[in-house]
TrEMBL record, chains A, B, C, D:
Substrate binds at S63, N113, E157, N164, Y188, Y241, V259. GO terms for biological process: glutamate biosynthetic process; L-glutamine catabolic process. The lineage of its organism: Bacteria, Pseudomonadati, Bacteroidota, Flavobacteriia, Flavobacteriales. This is Glutaminase. It comes from Leeuwenhoekiella blandensis (strain CECT 7118 / CCUG 51940 / KCTC 22103 / MED217) (Flavobacterium sp. (strain MED217)). The gene is glsA. It comes from the Bacteria. SUPFAM superfamilies: beta-lactamase/transpeptidase-like. NCBIfam families: Gln_ase, PRK00971.1-1, PRK00971.1-2.
């Protein structure tokens, strides 16, 4: 597959793309980003890699961190985590309390905020220094020791914590949160506030690729195939809030978006691709990011379907 | 891949499986089936095929017909159908009115009952003799002219039509149904009442395999890759009512179940597999069928993830 | 109490009232009414009565009929009816399916459409000729043999039956409707299609006044005090769709509205008052009607609170 | 009316009442109460008063405080409060988040927890020392300077604050709470933790009686008739969680219950009656308390209906 020429053709096509999306502003720090930033990085199992635009500029990964947290919790706690969080699409916006109340404090899946708060609570039960340990894990899977938290973003999230505090308190009331609510929120907001580039994200997500056992250096950091399969399934069914069906339909890859404008997607055994464009569509996903990934799977003719 | 030995090992394992499911009885005709029936048919793109148990015995395909109806509607009406039905998981039971009311008569996806009723209404706008034409389409893609409606099942569905009549009238009220409610229900119940075997189903669903263009005899009946991709994405995200996430998680294939106890699943470019065991779990999917498919993708080590 | 001077002052005040409401048009027949019509009739237990404007012009009573149907069902079937319909405010619009689904086909109260359909079904179980018998009951309590159905309104309702058909089919599915759906709808739509004037309505509703036993001619038609108390309680908590709290708050009387623009309210042991002005506010209640009744209880200084 | 003989007959009848209710235990302090306690106090506008059982023993008034808080907020802030809280029955349990989310942080009425939290927030904007000032108001209307907070109950509520903290944070997120969440909760829990007897409650609630102007000593503390009318309407439509319709139906008086087992009800211009029995029915209202009040209005033959 000649990825370079496909990427070139995509770059050409999107040069005239009229973005109707809006940069997230629910916390001021996110609103400061340049709306015209665009980056893409493709990392293949063969070792080949390709880049477009601002591929090495770091941005707030936000909800993309939920996949990393889930993989870490599965490594540490195994399948016991599924007693506290379900694996079904929610059919509701990412921060909905309605479903959580009807379903007695068990979040629908680990990629809605409520689910990620439970995963955070689980991690806290297994880590001595949660924030430090988590950062080490991220650096390890991304193979880059410079990755760090953006503390001003984390602080801003804490200042506007009310919706997430409502979710966390509701789960606490149902007995599905063991630690102090503010401690859980602080750790959760730090996860969201990690700054990474498309290059770093596409490297980190190779742990979900299920690729052959030859590559020993990487092997150590790779998830067991059965865990990677499950996380990929969750990304495909639940990775894009209440637009997950649309993404599966148009792009056809497991993936995860964040309100910082990033999207990571992957084709098991083949490649990871990360794209970044801050303006979000009405459902909270990067408008241009989704367009680019749709073009990519259409032109390669390869998706999981 | 030595499919035969994998299937043999599965058959051995399930011989001691304790089924806790229950045969559907909401219409008396479905309740008459022998709960111990079990069949499986695997149809590979290579032409190889494998069978277990009652693979050639016909049963009521019920909601599996929704995939066939969707493929026919897409062939006839193209992407215009998405103005009348969405592509998102519902997060609610298959016959829920709640979501339909909140979302003004636009069903969440074509695989919940409301969505299938809209697809039925669309087909009626394109077919001269809907029931006859639809049967010809099914016979054509399954390459078997003996397939037919089970009229006693269709009549029984009509006698217990009230929940579906409620859905249909609600959509009619919202303006999302063009034909007479009872005519739509009659055609819809006939689609559900088609009787097919695992062998016939696994053959019919090869139209979604996106396989290479060499096989000219089959080619004529195969869907365009872009349509197959979309239907596969929908099966993966919405094919198992509110257990779709669980199926993706455990099995990892696009598929569709029916309350007659059948499940069809497929791996694009590789194979279709149909399995049949009448007792259903609490979510309405064949308990043993899901177990068998989970064993199959675990032992082959191949899923779309 | 000098009712005449109070009514005169109200008429003066509303002469400059700017109505922002809209005449109901969901069936064409209702839309034909003159939006400027206004009538009021006050019937006191003393026998005194007072009128304003078009007090003797007949209009479609619509949902006001639900109170009459309930009183008739209570007379015929007694408290057994409460096994099939509850007595709580719904907190949702009058034709909502959501609550009905969550609550397994038991309507919240007899004054939402679903509840009135159940009451209709109950009446059918006790009446030989439902439509004739019901009309006799209405004529009897209103003491006026000229009252009749507006068949063109009933026919128009039937033609646009879909939302109510959805409700009825859902209850049928839950086993809370014994008769044929279309027969229930036909009888229900006839009840709604009764044409009465403010004068006739204020006379009919005196059966709920619980007034002293001296008046023997009327006594025969009056409800037992315990039944009248219950119906009055229901009118106060549930009589104005999801604006019942507002009506209790501003007017402070038991009452019932209809989309034809009529409202009947009453003060137990004192008077009935009926008012008619077709334009409806956003919640479906007569805008001017509510205003007039608020002025009336404010100026008399008398409400049940 | 010979109230004494009616009360005697009620006491006799309930001596054999088999209580199936359960004492509230969601906070340990409430669970410590003796389930067999029973008190009743009737305070008439004439000055007459009557008592049964433990009429002077103090208990935790809990949600009964919501009516007192509302009256105080109306005195201080007038009708501006209705911009932040609605006046409709909720149709959902008293602590439901669902409706609050759908309705953008505006609680349905001041008697569900969310609404009372908003009222608390409003009071904080008008009071220099909220807890002290509120206590003075209660002592003033009850004409008893010994009334005080039960600090152990307030502390226990704070320790189990999570459901209310979830509500408060959600409203904070919607912008409908101006003060610090924990400060609002602390003040709110103190209101709930006031300890009063039936005698004190029936005295305090005379401010809602709208009685003649002759009694000058009391007059100073009495609410304006227009405010009393509105609060009475709210008690009738919303005073008993999702059993408000049932209470209106069986008892027919404005009233308010608390999970401490108390109920206060009143007949405008005639009397206040307070009753206390700790075991609650499934909807959270005193089972015996409702029974006694139903007997009372049935045997006197007087209710607002």
């Amino acid at each position: 597959m000649n990825y370079q020429s496909i990427l070139d053709s995509i770059q050409k096509e999107i040069s005239s793309f009229k973005n109707t999306g809006k940069v997230a502003t629910y916390i001021p720090e996110l609103g400061k980003v340049d709306a015209h930033k665009f980056g893409l990085h493709l990392q293949c199992v063969t070792g080949e890699h390709f880049a477009l635009g601002d591929a090495e500029e770091r941005f707030s990964i936000q909800s993309i961190s939920k996949v990393i947290s889930l993989s870490y919790a599965l490594k540490l706690a195994g399948n016991s985590i599924w007693q506290r969080v379900d694996v079904e699409p929610s059919g509701d916006p990412f921060n909905s309390l309605v479903q959580l109340e009807y379903e007695k404090g068990i979040p629908r899946n680990p990629f809605i905020n409520a689910g990620a708060l439970v995963i955070t609570d689980i991690l806290m039960g297994h880590l001595k220094k949660p924030k430090e340990d988590f950062l080490h894990y991220v650096r390890d899977i991304a193979n880059d020791q410079t990755i760090t938290y953006d503390e001003s973003v984390a602080a801003s999230e804490m200042k506007h914590k009310f919706r997430n505090a409502s979710l966390a308190n509701l789960m606490k009331d149902f007995g599905n949160l063991q630690h102090n609510v503010d401690d859980v929120l602080d750790f959760y907001f730090h996860q969201c506030a990690i700054a990474m580039s498309c290059k770093q994200l596409s490297e980190a997500f190779t742990i979900f690729l299920n690729y052959p056992k030859g590559d020993h250096s990487k092997q150590a950091r790779t998830l067991e195939p059965i865990l990677a399969k499950r996380i990929n399934a969750l990304m495909l069914t639940c990775g894009f809030y209440d637009e997950s069906g649309e993404f599966a339909f148009r792009v056809g890859l497991p993936g995860k978006s964040g309100v910082g404008g990033g999207i990571v997607a992957l084709h098991p055994k083949q490649y990871c691709i990360a794209v970044w464009s801050p303006p979000l569509n009405a459902k909270g996903n990067s408008e241009l990011g989704m367009k680019v990934l749709e073009l990519f799977t259409s032109r390669t003719g390869i998706s999981v379907f």
